[in-house]
Design a protein that fits this description.
This protein has about 450 residues and is α/β, with parallel strands linked by helices. It is built from 17 helices and 13 strands.
């Protein structure tokens, strides 16, 4: 019998604690190696997609967050161009692009994609057979996969189903191709992420209207750092990807993969979810999710005028990505409304992507994944022995209310070396935030 869908209906139901979701903690009978990079918040494993990751986790060495982003990306690709949400005057499709970045030997990047491919091959075999190309070589080559009929050709040679899930196992090669003089690949990729019609100036007949292309790239941290150039960052190609650090999460020397019954049961449920999601049109935030977005998440993602450098460039599209990702979470939960738990899951994934970028690029090695917390921590550290007063914090974060600033400073004091103290003197006591690293 197919598995039942245990879809969360409230934020509390969909926000698993670490105790309830020990995907990165030692568990009886599971050998988990030491993780060298950041760990995602358990909130990312929300709803039906999170339940699927938990079911598959004991059967693969892949990083659970790697399986998660592959499911979100592939799920959005299969769902197609029907569902959308408005962000300002931009119509955003259910497209998630991710760079899974991990060491060649220990990243298990391919294991994450292959785990999802096996599940979807059982759920939507026609899609996997015909809509999952690889080998991005040029912009023209990508357009060929989803091209329209040639108006000068009497034969109907165009593509009707323009959904693609592209998995590039050697994304460093793709980056090198995009840098070649005269290459159209970077420009076409930017159009594809936006869901725009595709075309190149040198071939008028080669066009693709209403494409729906999701992309997963695999690359090692060393290769990414070596190939990354400021011009590429400024061009905006790579801030269309969620950078996701991945690492082998289990040691399974005798692994045989997920049992067929588990795959078949999950596939049956996924087939239903994906079919129903394809019929959805506009997706909107619920009133509570809208309030959370306005009061907490959007201010945290808006950044400041002094935010620059490779890390900021790489994560420049964090705000629209948070809503896009929340939309896919919602669609995979049988709903056209983004609820609070979907938005919190997306926000947690964006924070993890930012922490991944900091870890991968070697910038802000102590990054928390929250730009406001990173900004405050850096300011307190720079303030020296005298620390930073509560008044100065209020001025720095004047767009936030007292409750939000209180939560921010409380989280600061949980970081190693940071503390709050009462400043001596007459009159009303003044709280001061200090940084004093422990002696080596």
């Amino acid at each position: 019998m197919p598995v039942e869908l245990h879809l969360a209906t409230t934020a509390d139901d969909a926000r698993p604690t670490r105790a309830a979701n020990p995907l990165y903690d030692p568990s009886p009978g599971l050998d988990r190696p030491t993780r060298p990079g950041p760990v995602p918040d358990p909130e990312v494993f929300c709803g039906w997609v999170g339940e699927t990751v938990r079911d598959l986790d004991p059967t693969t060495e892949a990083d659970p967050v790697g399986v998660l982003v592959n499911l979100l990306s592939a799920g959005g690709a299969v769902i197609g161009p029907g569902p959308f949400l408005w962000i300002g005057n931009d119509r955003h499709p259910a497209l998630i692009w991710a760079l899974t970045v991990g060491a060649t030997a220990a990243g298990r990047k391919g294991a994450g994609s292959n785990t999802v491919r096996r599940l979807l091959k059982a759920a939507v075999p026609e899609f996997i057979a015909h809509n999952t190309p690889s080998g991005l070589s040029s912009g023209e080559g990508l357009i060929e996969q989803v091209k329209d009929d040639d108006p000068d050709d009497d034969k109907a040679t165009g593509v009707r189903d323009k959904r693609l899930w592209v998995v590039e196992s050697e994304y460093g090669i793709t980056m090198a191709r995009a840098r070649r003089e005269g290459s159209s690949l970077g420009g076409v990729l930017r159009q594809a992420w936006n869901g725009e019609d595709l075309g190149v100036m040198n071939r008028d007949a080669l066009r693709a209207t209403a494409p729906h292309i999701a992309l997963i790239g695999h690359i090692s941290p060393r290769e990414l750092r070596a190939k990354m150039q400021d011009s590429e960052l400024a061009g905006g190609t790579y801030n269309r990807f969620l950078p996701v650090f991945v690492h082998r999460n289990l040691l399974l020397p005798d692994a045989t993969g997920a049992p067929e019954q588990l795959v078949d049961n999950l596939a049956s449920a996924w087939r239903t979810v994906l079919t129903e999601a394809r019929a959805v049109g506009e997706v909107k935030l619920s009133p509570d999710a809208g309030q959370l977005w306005r009061e907490e998440i959007y201010p945290a993602l808006s950044g400041g005028e002094d935010d620059d450098g490779p890390l900021a460039e790489f994560t420049a599209r964090a705000a629209p990505y948070a809503k896009r990702t929340a939309m896919v979470y919602a669609l995979l939960d049988h709903t056209d409304r983004i609820e609070v738990h979907h938005l919190r899951a997306a926000w947690a994934l964006i924070r993890y992507a930012r922490a991944s970028a900091a870890h991968i690029l070697g910038a802000a090695a102590s990054s928390t994944g929250d730009p406001n917390l990173d900004k405050l921590a850096a300011a307190v550290k720079a303030a020296g022995p005298g620390g930073m007063t509560q008044t100065q914090v209020q001025v720095m974060f004047k767009r936030q209310n007292a409750t939000q600033r209180g939560e921010l400073t409380a989280r600061l004091c949980q970081l190693p070396g940071y503390a709050a103290a009462q400043a001596p003197g007459t009159g009303r006591p003044q709280t001061v935030y200090l940084y004093a690293p422990a002696d080596d």
